[in-house]
Amino acid sequence: MSAVTTTNLRYIYGAGTPFEAAALDGTDFTAEEGAFIGIVGHTGSGKTTLVQHLNGLLKPTSGTVVLFGKDIWAKGYDIRAARFEAGLVFQFSEYQLFEETCYKDIAFGPKNMGLSDSEVDTRVKEAAAAMEVKDEWLTKSPFDLSGGEKRRVALAGVLAMQPRLLILDEPAAGLDPSGREMVLNRISKYRSDNNVTILLVSHSMEDIARFTDKVLVMSDGKVLLYGDTEDVFAEDGVLAEAGLALPQITRLALLLKRRGINIGAPRTVEEAAKRLLSL
Amino acid sequence: MLKDITIGQFFPGDSVLHRQDPRFKLIESIIFIAMLFAAQNFTAIFVATLFAFFAYAVGKIKISLALKGLKPVLPLIIFSGVLNLFFITGGELLWQWQFISIYENGIETAVFMVVRVVALIAGMSLLTYTTSPIMLTDAIENLLAPLKKVKFPVHELAMMMTIALRFIPTLIEETDRIMSAQKARGAQLDTGSLKVRVKALVPVLVPLFVSAFKRASDLALAMECRCYRGGEGRTRLRTLKSAAIDGVCLTVTLVVAAAVIAVGFVPWII
Ligand SMILES: Nc1ncnc2c1ncn2[C@@H]1O[C@H](COP(=O)(O)OP(=O)(O)OP(=O)(O)O)[C@@H](O)[C@H]1O
Ligand SMILES: [Mg+2]
């Protein structure tokens, strides 16, 4: 079964004002259950707009969104159910924290789901552990943490709802290298532990290369390319036109291919080394 | 959504109104308000409304935009209409049911009030639709300049207004984003009882205030770094200049205002 499918999605910001602009212009896209999918595209290509449709935050101007087999804008569907099925972590999610303590903030989502206190408690503890939120932070005010620490608390706040589809909009932006590494590794581990589907919006092609199975390339509100990460990476001409730069090692491999040494479009240095050695 | 509020927004353009000296536009707007309150009968208010339509045409702003802008204040308009409808007595009794009664004068006053309020809001919106906030505060500072003589902090006031106006769109955007983020965690912001909804505002207001204060302190720091000291001896990037067209617009406005007042004094016109 597919986790989420959009058909012919169109969305217009500021309809009826002189600022009218189509941010999505006929987007068709399917995410298979259990996949780790990267979403890339230049600034303003419609990535954030697209992911906000998947949990029903934005209502499409036209087109449909089918989440785990159900049309979320059909009559009789409670849109809040979509929020819990598809957990969305916003760009700069640390700005959404508001509670007195981190514990309470992480518990906000599960509480809204109407779970019992003991269930909320286990979920908070699990989510905190999954994002390496230290026990002593839980009793602290989120405003006393550093930016990167806040980010992890915010991520835990969404994980605690245990969504089957986890959507992350630039979860690692603005973090230091080790913070990036930790957050992405944790997300990847969370996925394999719980068998959830992940959509990762990112500007870092290196991160996309290392973690994803498939990549969706957006350009001007349309799907430019969608397929297995390696196949998409092989289309370096199209990607360059969309303003995206491949990881250095992939570029090197594609240049080698032009000179007759075909090792495909490896994503990491290790992969490239392995393939080169086996030639 | 919050984005749909068009009151106070500026829509850049190149019409005569857009190019007019903001000081004149401000004065014309004040004359328009005076006109609406001076209008004594239906013909007078009709003339004033017609003038507003004319101004929208000159400014090349769609009337539909102004109507959209009215949406948030609709409850207020309806309330004032209904209040007048039921509480004004006089003239013929048209309809009665238990303690509710509607008189001829009630209907007249209600319609009159609604037209007046709608025209008022539409007129003020036109001012902001066609004038950038910066221009508007420049105009206010310029017009209030004589008050500097009595030690009134005109420049500081104008600066505060500029900053406030500048940050309204930013804060709206921010509010929208925070609301989305909390809704993504299942917050119920638009359904439920009043108590539920008021409580649901906490997750929105706390982050909003935190970031607004942070923004304010960042801005203060940035201004200080550039040695901002206030009005004394500062020159301007834009100087306001009036042209012949400004005089023409002002004259037209004054003539219409005179007509509106005159019509009010003619006894046989309704
Ligand atoms: N709230 C809004 N009001 C009006 N237009 C908007 C709004 N949000 C986005 N847009 C417009 O819609 C288009 C798509 O924006 P979106 O935020 O989806 O891009 P993005 O791919 O997420 O970009 P980034 O990589 O910078 O985050 C842009 O052209 C943008 O100007
Ligand atoms: Mg974005």
What does this structure look like?
- The complex is a heterodimer of chains A (279) and B (270).
- Chain A has helices spanning 47-54, 79-85, 102-112, 117-130, 135-138, 147-159, 177-194, 205-211, 229-234, 236-241, 248-258, 269-277, and strands spanning 2-13, 21-32, 36-41, 62-67, 70-71, 86-89, 165-169, 197-201, 214-219, 222-228.
- Chain A is of the alpha/beta class and 279 residues long.
- The longest helix of chain A has 18 residues, at 177-194.
- The radius of gyration of chain A is 20 Å and the shape is globular.
- The mean pLDDT of chain A is 91.
- Chain B is mainly alpha-helical.
- Helices cover 67% and strands 3% of the residues of chain B.
- Chain B contains 11 helices and 2 strands.
- Chain B has a two-stranded antiparallel ribbon with strand order 1-2.
- In chain B, strand 1 and strand 2 form a beta hairpin.
- Classes of the chains: A alpha/beta (279), B mainly alpha (270).
- The interface between A and B is medium-sized, with 29 and 25 residues.
- The structure holds adenosine-5'-triphosphate and magnesium ion (MG).
How are the elements arranged and paired?
The complex is a heterodimer of chains A (279) and B (270).
Chain A: E1 2-13, E2 21-32, E3 36-41, H1 47-54, E4 62-67, E5 70-71, H2 79-85, E6 86-89, H3 102-112, H4 117-130, H5 135-138, H6 147-159, E7 165-169, H7 177-194, E8 197-201, H8 205-211, E9 214-219, E10 222-228, H9 229-234, H10 236-241, H11 248-258, H12 269-277
Parallel strand pairs in A: 3-8, 3-9, 6-7, 7-8
Antiparallel strand pairs in A: 1-2, 1-4, 4-5, 9-10
Chain B: H1 16-19, H2 22-38, H3 42-58, H4 63-70, H5 74-87, E1 93-97, E2 100-103, H6 104-130, H7 133-144, H8 154-183, H9 194-200, H10 202-225, H11 244-265
Antiparallel strand pairs in B: 1-2
Helix pairs in contact in B: 2-6, 2-7, 2-11, 3-6, 3-11, 4-6, 5-6, 7-8, 8-10
The structure holds adenosine-5'-triphosphate and magnesium ion.
